[in-house]
Amino acid sequence: MQDGTFSTSGYLHETGASRGNVYAGNCPTRQLLDRIGDKWSVLILLLLGAEDMRFNRLKRQIDGISQKMLSQTLRSLERDGLVTRAVESTMPVTVTYGITPLGRELLAALRFMIDWAETRIEDVAAAQVDYERRNGCANGCQVRDG
Amino acid sequence: MQDGTFSTSGYLHETGASRGNVYAGNCPTRQLLDRIGDKWSVLILLLLGAEDMRFNRLKRQIDGISQKMLSQTLRSLERDGLVTRAVESTMPVTVTYGITPLGRELLAALRFMIDWAETRIEDVAAAQVDYERRNGCANGCQVRDG
DNA sequence: CAGCATCCATGACGATACTG
DNA sequence: CAGTATCGTCATGGATGCTG
Fold first, then answer.
1. Nearest to A86, CA basis, from A52, A46, A45
2. Of A24, A31, A89, A123, which has the most beta carbons under 10 Å away?
3. Distance between CA atoms of A34 and A43, rounded to whole angstroms?
């Protein structure tokens, strides 16, 4: 099918960064980020990774989320084969969401990122404060010490 | 300072998902995603992880990026302590970007996600095609096989 | 070369109202 | 309960022009 490799990291690992624009937009990392880089996907994946859950349960857990976004994100994740959606024809209807093997795999990979965030996000915040201090608040106000 | 833990994954691992709205918005994962979940951060981190680079070199490598977004994203990453910015007062000025230890650490964590993307993104794409087939194209047109 | 300032389009997201 | 539909807002990001 294809006569060239577009491996994002493999590219960097093996050939060095001088082969053109591999980053044009068809790189897998970009595609993944386009799908789960949004505001809620990872959180939902995380919750469903822990246990299956119904719609309103999810909504209550995440809380900041609107039902529109929950619905939309769930649909997107389902479409991508990352979560399952099981409908029971009770009255009223009961819908249970879960995670697929593929989704669980992704979650395992994301776990490293999540762990990093938990231990290091403070350093990032600190770096930001430090940066602001050095550069004053934006371009208008500077500290007067002279 | 704080009297409770807000660990995103730890929360799920240890206590089970029933403690309220831990996902409200102060969770580390959310914060991280707010910072690097954008369109270009990860790509830039990836490139700078391979080697230091100057502005226009980065721009040429990523190619789809506008200089506004490159500038903006670099500044954001620098502010967060993830990339370095070194200015040489040559003529004209020479600015070289690199990655910090913190950034390299994050990149290492992201690598798992990237690797997953490279091996599995096709499955995701396939799942999507499959989903579209089952549900027809949107809500108006369905396959007629009966 | 390495940017900043401005304008503008898109779409992500939230709020609200309604449905089976 | 589990959504869909619609509207408005705001941030993201691209295009363009200017600067030191």
1. A52
2. A31
3. 15
Rounded CA–C1' distance between B7 and C5, in angstroms: 41
**For A104-139, b where at least 16 C-beta lie within 10 A, e where not — what string?**
ebbbebbbbbbbbbbebbeebeebbeeeeeeeeeee
The residue to which tokens 């809500």 are assigned: B139
Element (H, E) at B118: helix B101-135
Q: What is the CA B67 to C1' D3 distance in angstroms?
A: 42
pLDDT tens digit string along B65-108?
999 999 999 999 999 999 999 999 998 999 999 999 999 999 99
Averaged pLDDT, A15-20 = 36
Q: Are B29 and A117 in contact (CB under 8 A)?
A: yes
Distance CA A40, CA A62 (A): 9
